[in-house]
Structures are given as C-alpha cells and as structure tokens.
Amino acid sequence: MSASDSAYGAATESAAVFDRSARTRLVVRGRAPGQMLKGVLTGTLPAAPAPAGEGVLGGRATYHAVLTPKGMMITDLWCLRPGDEEHDGFVLDVPEAGREGLLAHLGRFLPPRMAKGEDVTADTAMITVVGPEAPSLLSRLALGLRVEAAELSALEEGEWRCVGPSAVDALLVVRTREVWPEAFDVLGPVRVVSTLQRALEASGMPAAGADVWTTLRVEAGRPAFGVDMDDSTIPVEAGIHERAIDYKKGCYTGQEVIVRIRDRGHVNRTLQMVHLGDVAPPTAGTELFEGGVGPEAKPAGSVTSAVRSPLHGETVALAYVRRGVEGALAPR
C-alpha cells in the first residue's frame, strides 16, 4: 500500500490531517470594512460571533466570489468575522491562486480611509482534519472538551467554534464540506496551530498530501480556484452561485451580469462530475466527446480535474460540459 493509499484510508476511515497554510489569509479593518466589502463580495457578510456555551464562542463564515465588472472570477473565498467589525475587521481565507488578483482588486476598490487589507498569512496557519474521528479528536485537543463531538458534527458548513472570550488569535474550528468525509478547518496563530498539529500526529493521525486532498475534493464535486475555476469563469458556470451569491443584496461588482443570467439567459457550459470508467485519469484540458471515441463523436467538453476514485471505483473528473449534452462522455 502506498503512502497516498494509506492516507486516503485514514481520511475516510479514521482521521488524517492536511496542511492548508499555503492559502492566503487577509484581515480587512478600518472605519467601515463591512460597508466596503459589501461592494466587493458576492454573498452575505457574516454576523458577529455569539456565545455558544460556557466559555465558547460561535459564528459562521460565509462563502463568496469576487468578480470583474464582466462577471468573471477574480477568486472565491471564505469571509469570517472574529469580533467587533471596526476593531477586529473581517478575515478572508483565500486560495493561493487568487491572492494576487484579490490584493490588486482590493487596492482599487477599498478606500484606505474606510478599509484596508493586511496580509496575515505569515503569522497564521491552517490545517484541515478529515475523517470520522475528527470531531472527537478536535473536541478534546482543540476545544478542551468544551464543545462535544456531536455538536461539531452537527455544524453547518462555515459554522465555527472557539474557546475563550474572543475569537481574535484563538484556535477556530470551522466545519467544511470541501471534501466528502467529515472535515474541519482549524485556523489560528502559527504557534498554536503547530502545537495542535503535533498533538494530532502524536495521537497517531497521519499527515496527508495534496494528491489525497484532490481525490477527496473531486469525489465531493467541489471545484478549486486555479484548477477548475479561473479568470475566465463565471460563477454560474462553475455551479458555485447558490453558495456564493446573495441575489437579494445590494450592488457589488459584476452583479449585472449575474442577475442577467439568472433572469434572462443561461450559460453555455457547466462544471459537472463525469464518470469515465476504467481509464487512466486524463490531464487537465483533455477534450471529452459524446458518442464514444469514433469519428462520429462530437466534442462535448473538457476536463479540469481527474482522479482515480476509490469511492466510485473508477476514474471521475470535473469537466466543463456543453449545454444540452446528456449522453456518456469519453476522453480522447
């Protein structure tokens, strides 16, 4: 059994830990950070945290896209509010591939007198604990048994818990569904997260790599920015609009395009999970054809991510598929 097979087994049958610190973490503070971010982010900003038990705070991070005026993605991200809006601001958890575009966008659209973004990536860390044993381990090692494992399991995506009077500089345990087994992101200062990671590994939990994460993510049907989405993608094409867009909110950059698609039109392609059978995973960009691989086959889409899936027992891919295609697809 390879190391990847062993780590996949742990993540699906017990627990495994993934180092996610390569993601960018920004803090947006100022006189009116919420008001300024409303015009940049496509979703609803998170509410202030509230007591969630004795000595426990809770809140819910919200998922967003950031768009150009033409509705194309600059990045996706999670927005978390650790405390008082003006003093503590908002924490943005951003994929590495979206970092430069987002920083440039914030530089153009956030008036410095009202709000300013600070990159705190070097001072913070993030791990994700995946597997059926993750809730009990994090209840004990990250939250001091102040939050029961069953409560963690019942959290909705984005909901978080921390111990102490403030979420600023605390160890936050956040429910995620970026992969299909039970999973929790843990964010906090580098020293605190590193201490937790060592404790998890000392308990016998293996560290897992990016290849295992990709397999679990694709099996869950979740796109990643920089892989399945880029600056030519409209959120509706990637299927993230129901999670990322608040259609009831006021103006944000790119809103006209998104509303026009909702009310009057459609997109010509959508990201779908495609089952490819017993073939080697095709590389990104591989064309998919409808009607087999013969000369009569018609181009139907292209692959963005593909993995050999233990869950499905075959190769599965995330691929952009042309509107109207319904039959089986094959790579060529």
CATH class of the largest domain: Alpha Beta
What is the name of the CATH superfamily of the largest domain?
A: Probable tRNA modification gtpase trme, domain 1
Mean pLDDT: 95
Distance between the termini: 30 Å
Order of helices and strands: HEEHEEEEHEHEEHHEEEHEHHHHEEEEE
Quote the beta fraction: 25-35%
* Share of helical residues: 25-40%
Number of E-type strands: 18
Radius of gyration: 21 Å
Structural class: alpha+beta
CATH topology of the largest domain: Gyrase A, domain 2
Order of strands across the main sheet: 3-4-10-11-12-9-1-13
The number of distinct structural domains comes to: 2
- Largest sheet, strands/sense/barrel: 8 strands, mixed
Total number of helices: 11
Coarse shape:
globular
- Label the CATH architecture of the largest domain: 2-Layer Sandwich
Which runs of at least 5 residues are low in confidence (pLDDT < 50)? none
